Amino acid sequence: MIVVFGASGFLGKEVCKYFHNQGKKVIAVFRNESDRNKDHDNCYTGFTYFDIDNSSSAEGFKGFEEEYDEPINLVVNCIGTLSYKKLMDMTVDDFVGTLTINTIIPELITQSYLDYIDDYYKCNAGDTVVFNLVHIASLAYKIPITFGAHYCSSKAALAMLVKCLGKEIDEHYKLPLSVCCISPGMISESKMEKDNIKRLTELKGMSYDAAVNYNNSGKFTSVESVILVIDSIANGKLVYSNGYNFEL
């Protein structure tokens, strides 16, 4: 069974749709009711909500297992936020808000999943289920974006968080959990791409055509390539060291 956080976003919806079509049980997690697009209800088995102001709401993993009688062997975190603002105009709230969604929430999800796995093996001694946790990061963790300081720094924090978590899991928890992150470039044909063109025209003063040309010269990643990596992990075809960062 697969749990997808950030299921309302462009990538999250595609991940849900892909695995649902593969016959997998998919639990979609939304931030609130307004984020849930009921037109996509047929893309997942069940759904729940995750309140970023209430970390305990991420602790529903065990409830899913009991309801669907199947262990959660893959969690994909697609939660993320991207906005553009000149560094000199940014406030503490801008930094904290982006860091909370892009870095702190993934850590809370990881904590909850670790608790779930620990409880699972206490109740199912001798089981051989292998668990995987995939966080979606960004190549922005190492490629600076004009007017994107808070976004780039939060993704750099997420990449290092995953690396540290991998080391911690190996050395201390001794649980069959592999954690990694996938760092794509800008996802083509998504809201992110449209927002980038808007940023170039409004903040950098480019004409629309110049912004499109500039945008198209950048590093893009297809949704299919991201899902291919996730699918390979889910099916045990891709073995990786804990904390690994797949750069696409």
Explain this structure:
This protein has helices at 10-21, 61-68, 92-123, 149-173, 191-202, 208-216, 223-234, and strands spanning 2-5, 26-30, 46-49, 74-77, 131-136, 177-183, 186-187, 220-221, 244-247. With 248 residues, it is an alpha/beta fold. The protein has one domain: NAD(P)-binding Rossmann-like Domain (Rossmann fold). The strands form two sheets. A seven-stranded parallel β-sheet has the order 3-2-1-4-5-6-9, sandwiched between helices. The two termini are 25 Å apart.
Features:
7 helices; alpha/beta; Rossmann fold; seven-stranded parallel sheet; two-stranded parallel sheet
Strand content: 15-25%
CATH homologous superfamily classification: NAD(P)-binding Rossmann-like Domain
Q: How many strands? A: 9
CATH architecture: 3-Layer(aba) Sandwich
User: What is the helical fraction, as a range of percent?
Assistant: 40-55%
Could you name the CATH topology? Answer: Rossmann fold
Instruction: Provide the spatial order of strands within the biggest beta sheet.
Output: 3-2-1-4-5-6-9
Low-confidence stretches: none
